[in-house]
Write a structure and sequence with these properties.
This protein is about 40% helix and about 15% strand. By secondary structure, the chain is of the alpha/beta class. Its cofactor is Mn(2+).
Length: about 375
């Protein structure tokens, strides 16, 4: 090998070493949020690009996210710097495997969320990051068919059914849309809205007489629901196409419709039932695993994420950044709902089996 070749080889080796070093210097942001390609790209280019050391943003489904985290914990060493996930994800993790975040200077406006983020300990285990909920939305053309005396901001389920029936009769086709597809968030409607609004609970009231009434009401609503709803997942698509005029979904799954045609649609709360107006809040947070290779850089990234920046650009493009729920309970601490008249939360884990049974069997009930 001549001198020129040796120099070229050495230069390439140095370049490779520098490349590896640079890659290692990036903070690995392991997240369950902003998973779709366009959202992940927006996170990298609009939100995280301003962080000096660099960020390797890797969104994953819940399963792979937890599997890698557990593997690194068992190995006692890891490469994940920052975790991004929902309260439900974090509540399944041993708080001892996370770094206390009390030292991060952040003002958390909600005492409820600050309490949840402690995961039963005396210090913050994750930093509240994003919050949203589920709402109703409608094409403004549907407003002409509201029942007499109905207030769109204070609808009951009976009024919603009458409204959907009026549209169905006038237009000759059912125009209520429901995210009942394989990837739709239908279960959150039953778990956080329909059941608590009629039964003041979910698990402990699963087989109650009030639950029967709730299902009967939903069965009435289904008669005026677009039958293609069993394929729907993101109701913004049906609003924009006109396949549905009245819909229920997560705020982020409606955002595109309002971003593209803000003058054509109106948003409003989900209906109330005999027990109140049930609803489900959504909370995502950021945490640092004890196995993080550089905890100082990880803390710096979380602090960066809490600063005002280019989030407005991301919210305008992101379509599914806030997907997931925080487990909550009502005032008697026996269930996993939050009703509007009650302002108390607790970190009691929900029993999901009855709810999953409820969701898997709903199609049979409606048949």
């Amino acid at each position: 090998m001549n001198l020129k070749s040796k120099l070229a080889f050495a230069a390439s080796g140095i370049a490779l070493l520098c490349s590896v070093t640079a890659a290692q210097a990036e903070v690995l942001f392991w997240s369950t949020q902003a998973r779709p390609a366009e959202e992940a790209q927006a996170m990298r280019q609009q939100v995280l690009s301003g962080f000096g050391p660099g960020v390797d943003y890797q969104p994953n489904e819940d399963g792979p996210w937890l599997t890698r985290l557990q593997a690194e914990d068992q190995a006692g060493t890891g490469s994940i710097g920052v975790l991004g996930a929902l309260h439900g994800n974090f509540s399944a993790i041993d708080p001892d495997t996370l770094v206390d975040l009390d030292g991060i200077d952040a003002s958390i406006s909600s005492e409820t969320f600050a309490s949840l983020a402690k995961l039963g300990t005396d210090s913050l285990q994750y930093m509240p990051w994003m919050q949203a909920s589920y709402i109703m939305a409608a094409n403004k053309e549907a407003l002409a068919y509201l029942p007499d005396g109905a207030d769109i901001d204070a609808l009951t389920y009976d009024q919603l059914i009458a409204w959907a029936a009026n549209v169905h009769e006038a237009e000759g086709t059912p125009k209520f849309g429901f995210p009942a597809g394989p990837k739709g968030l239908k279960h959150r409607f039953f778990q956080g809205y329909l059941y608590p609004s009629y039964t003041n609970g979910v698990v402990r009231t699963f087989a109650s007489a009030e639950a029967v009434t709730a299902w009967e009401k939903f069965r009435e609503l289904w008669q005026h629901t677009n039958p293609a709803s069993t394929n729907f997942a993101f109701m913004q698509e049906q609003l924009l196409s006109g396949d549905a005029w009245i819909v229920f979904d997560h705020t982020s799954r409606l955002a595109q419709a309002f971003n593209e045609r803000p003058d054509d649609f109106v948003a409003f709360p989900a209906p109330a039932g005999p027990a109140g107006r049930g609803f489900m809040p959504v909370l995502a947070g950021m945490a640092i695993p004890e196995t993080a290779p550089d905890k100082d850089e990880a803390r710096a990234l979380i602090e960066y994420m809490l600063m005002p920046g280019d989030w407005h650009a991301f919210w305008g493009e992101g379509g599914d950044v806030l997907v997931g729920e925080v487990s909550t309970v009502n005032d008697d601490e026996t269930d996993n709902i939050f009703r509007e008249p009650i302002g108390r939360f607790a970190t009691i884990e929900e029993d999901k089996d009855p709810v999953h049974l409820l969701v898997s069997d709903y199609a049979t009930w409606l048949a």
